[in-house]
Specification:
3 strands, 1 helix, 81 residues, alpha+beta, three-stranded antiparallel sheet, single chain, 25% helix, COMM domain-containing protein 6 isoform X2
Length: 81
C-alpha cells in the first residue's frame, strides 16, 4: 500500500472483484531469510466510463488487520442506514 502516488480507487469506481491470498516471503536478493507473512490483494475495478482496471498491492499482517477492522466498522454503519 505504500509507495504509489496513484490512488487505488476514486469515489466513482465500482468494485467488480476482490481477491486475496496469504503469502510468506522467504528470501530476497538482499536478504537470505525473511520469513514474514503478508496479504496480497487483487482488485478489479471499473471507472465511471466503464473501463476495467486491475489493481494489486501487498499488506503486512498488522496493515491487513487494520483494513479488516475498518471494513467491519463500515459494515456496522451500513446496517444502521
Amino acid at each position: 500500500m505504500e509507495g504509489s502516488s496513484e490512488p487505488l480507487l476514486d469515489a466513482k469506481s465500482k468494485l467488480l472483484d476482490f481477491q486475496w491470498k496469504l503469502g510468506m516471503a522467504v528470501s530476497s536478493d538482499s536478504c537470505r531469510s525473511l520469513k514474514y507473512p503478508y496479504v496480497a490483494v487483487m482488485l478489479k475495478v471499473a471507472d465511471d466510463s466503464g473501463q476495467v482496471k486491475k489493481k494489486s498491492f501487498e499488506m503486512t499482517i498488522p496493515q491487513f488487520q487494520n483494513f479488516y477492522r475498518q471494513f467491519k466498522e463500515i459494515a456496522a454503519v451500513i446496517e444502521t442506514v
